[in-house]
Amino acid sequence: MDSSALGEADQHLLHLLQLDGRAPFSHLAHCLEVSERTVARRYQRLRTLGLRIVGQPVPARLGLTRWLVRLHCTPDAAGTIAKALARRSDTSWVTLASGGTELYCAVTTRTADERDALLLHKLPRTPHVLSVGAHCMMRIFAGATSTWHGSRLLPATSAGAVDSGARTPPLKLDATDRTLFTELAADGRATLPELGAATGRSPSSVQRHLERLRGEGALCFAVDFDPVLLGYHMSTRLWMRVAPAHLRTVGETLATHPEIPFAAAVTGTSNLVASGVFRDAHELYDYLDQRIGPLPGIQSIETAPVLREIKRLAPTIP
Predict the structure, then answer these.
(1) Where does the HTH asnC-type domain start and stop, copy by copy (predicted)?
(2) For the chain, does the N or the C end have fewer beta carbons within 10 angstroms?
(3) What are the pLDDT digits (tens) for 31-79?
(4) How far is it, in rounded angstroms, from Cα 267 to Cα 275?
C-alpha cells in the first residue's frame, strides 16, 4: 500500500496521535469533526497497517545513559549480529546500513558495569566485528528513536521526547511506576482499567501516577508508523562534524526540520547525528544542498542510507 491509500483524515489522525498518544477518541473526534466511531474505525485500520503507540522512558530523567553504537562487520555476519543485538533487552533499535556491513543500535545502560560489559567485552570479542564505535548521546534535540514519528506532519519539536538539558535529580520510581512502563511499552493506549488490573491499583491511582510521570518528564509517547506507507522511501543516517560554537544552533535548527525525526549531540569525531526521512534520493540531495549546506559551522557530513530496520521503538524498561 502506498500513501495514496491513506486519506488526509488518516494523516490528520496520525498528527493528533503524535501530539498526544493517549488522547481519548472523544478529543480526536472533536478535532477531526467526525464521530468517535469513525475515529475508532480509522485507528483500528491504521493499527492493521502497523501503527503502534508506545510509552517510553526518558533516559536522562531516570538516570539512564543512552549510547549510539556503530559497528562495522564482515558482510556474511552483519545480519546475524544485528539479530543478536535485537534480542537484547537494552537495545531500542537496530538498523543495517552502508552496503550491509555497518550496523547502528541504540543502547540504554543503567550502570558503568552494564556499559563496560557490552562495549568493552562483549562486542569487541564478537567474531566478524571489525570495529566498534560507541557514542554517548549528550543532548537529544528531537525525537526519541530512529524510527519515523510523524514528523512530516507536525513541528518536530513535538515529536517525542526532547532533552532540555536541565540538570535535575533522577526521578525515583516505585513498583507501580515500573509496571506502568512495562505495560505502556506494549500498548501506549492501554486503558486505565487495564493498567489498574496490571498494577493492582485503582484507575484513579493509575491516573495520578501517569500524570506524575508525564509531568516530571520521565514518560513520553511515540508514534511508530511505516514511512513507506506515506510515500517516504529513503531513510538515512546523517553524521556531521560541527564546530563547537555552532553545535547547539545546528542541533536546534535540525529539530525544526520536518525531515528530521531524530537529532542528537554525541561524543566522537562526528559530534552530531540525525535521522532523515525522504521520499527519494532526489529529495535527500535537495535537503543536503538547500537546508544543510547553508547552516553555519558544519565542517563535514556523511550520509549512510538505512537498508533495513531489524528492531525499532523497543524502549528499555527502567
Answers:
(1) 173-233
(2) N
(3) 999 999 999 999 999 999 999 999 988 888 999 999 999 999 998 999 9
(4) 17
60-159+226-311, what's its fold? Alpha-Beta Plaits (3.30.70)
Domains 1-49 and 60-159+226-311 share a fold: no
**Whole-prediction pTM value?**
0.83
Output the nine-digit C-alpha cell for 84.
Answer: 543478536
The CA distance from 61 to 166, in Å, is: 9
CATH class entry, domain 1-49? mainly alpha
- Could you tell me the residue ranges of all domains in the chain? 1-49, 60-159+226-311
In terms of C-beta density within 10 A (0-12 exposed, 13-18 middle, 19 or more buried), how is residue 178 classed?
middle
- Spatial CB neighbours of 43, under 8 Å, sequence gap ≥ 6: 13, 25, 28, 51
